[in-house]
Design goal:
Blueprint (H helix, E strand, L loop, with lengths): L7 H22 L11 H24 L6 H24 L3 H24 L7 E5 L6 H8 L7 H6 L1 H11 L3 E10 L2 E8 L2 E7 L2 E6 L19 E3 L4 H11 L4 H5 L1 E6 L8 E6 L4 E5 L3 H4 L3 H5 L6 E4 L5 E4 L2
Parallel strand pairs: 1-3, 4-6, 6-7, 9-10
Antiparallel strand pairs: 2-3, 4-5, 7-8, 8-9, 10-11
Helix pairs in contact: 5-7
Length: 324
């Protein structure tokens, strides 16, 4: 019989197999005893401190290198915010079907229109009161009638058409130069009036025709006697003479105007613009037409010092001559 010869390599392999397995386990576990030496406790502590310092250094460097916000970054942030808003809007729209979204918008528009209509027909949108200012002779009723203004008219529409009502008032009443509407309170409109005042009368036949300070004569307002204590103009031969006197007389104060009874055009060779003025207190005044507003204001102080009637000459200087 032949004896089986054992392979010497098998015995060697069998002997080395535990060592190989141990080595593989060490490699897999990351603990390679042949290549790495174990660190002492002191070395581990030093290594840990080095890592902490290195991490702090990296953090400081990253802070220093942090870029400041630029316009481009700000624009990018705005774009992101806008995109997020658009995204929310899209999400909102996605909650409704297209026809439901259209119906929703239609309902909102109808509600706004309905609210506007309710306001327009409600008492809150109507004029409850007119406050007239700036008048001296005309009454509030005369202003409202000429302009065609009434309570209960639409507030906003009336206020918006201020120029229309001004033109209407001027065409109906020559004493109204202009008026302006402004909102004073919730339901009150203020009417500011520029009034053309009456400065006297001109007698034609048995009628007295009122004259305005702009020289216009009110043909529709005639009377058989003087009204309002205004003077009568007499003796004027031209419209230029009358207009000049009216303009000067309109500069006087209201009490002084009402103190005059009659103004007569009475020129002389020495003064071709002389006026003879009859006062209601029985005195007479001689004065130039072109200086009427300048010198007539001294008359009240002059007569206050006198105890008898007479004639005050204000053409050159100021002189008073009592009646004989």
């Amino acid at each position: 019989m032949t004896e089986k010869k054992e392979n010497p390599h098998n015995e060697q392999d069998n002997a080395n197999s535990p060592d190989i397995q141990t080595h593989l386990n060490e490699l897999l576990s990351g603990d390679d005893g042949s290549s790495k030496t174990k660190l002492s406790g002191k070395e581990k502590k030093l290594s840990k401190m080095r890592r902490i310092k290195a991490n702090k250094k990296k953090a400081n460097e990253s802070d220093k290198l942090t870029p400041l916000p630029t316009d481009q970054n700000i624009d990018n942030d705005k774009t992101k915010t806008k995109n997020s808003q658009n995204g929310r809007q899209i999400e909102w729209k996605q909650l409704l079907f297209p026809h439901e979204w259209r119906a929703f918008k239609t309902i909102v528009v109808l509600l706004i229109v309905a609210a506007g209509l309710i306001y327009l027909i409600s008492p809150a949108s109507q004029v409850k009161k007119y406050d007239v200012v700036g008048t001296q002779e005309l009454s509030d009723k005369a202003i409202l009638k000429a302009a065609g203004l009434q309570k209960g008219q639409p507030l906003l529409t009336t206020l918006y058409q201020s120029d229309y009502f001004s033109q209407e008032a001027k065409s109906k009443n020559p004493q109204i130069a202009h008026l302006k509407l402004t909102l004073k309170s919730d339901n009150t409109l203020q009417i500011k009036v520029d009034e053309i005042l009456k400065v006297g009368y001109v007698k034609a036949g048995n009628k007295y025709y009122p004259i305005l300070e702009n020289g216009d004569m009110l043909n529709r307002e005639v009377s058989e006697q003087q009204v309002g204590g205004l003077p009568l103009y007499d003796g004027f031969t031209s419209a230029k003479q009358l207009h000049k006197t009216l303009a000067e007389f309109g500069e006087l104060s209201m009490p002084l105007r009402h103190a005059v009874s009659e103004i007569v055009w009475s020129p002389t060779e020495q003064n071709n613009q002389r006026l003879l003025i009859y006062m209601n207190d029985g005195n007479e005044v001689l004065i130039s037409a072109n200086e009427l507003s300048k010198k007539m204001k001294y008359y009240p102080g002059m007569v206050a010092q006198l105890d008898q009637a007479g004639q005050a000459d204000l053409q050159v200087g100021a002189y008073f001559k009592p009646y004989k």
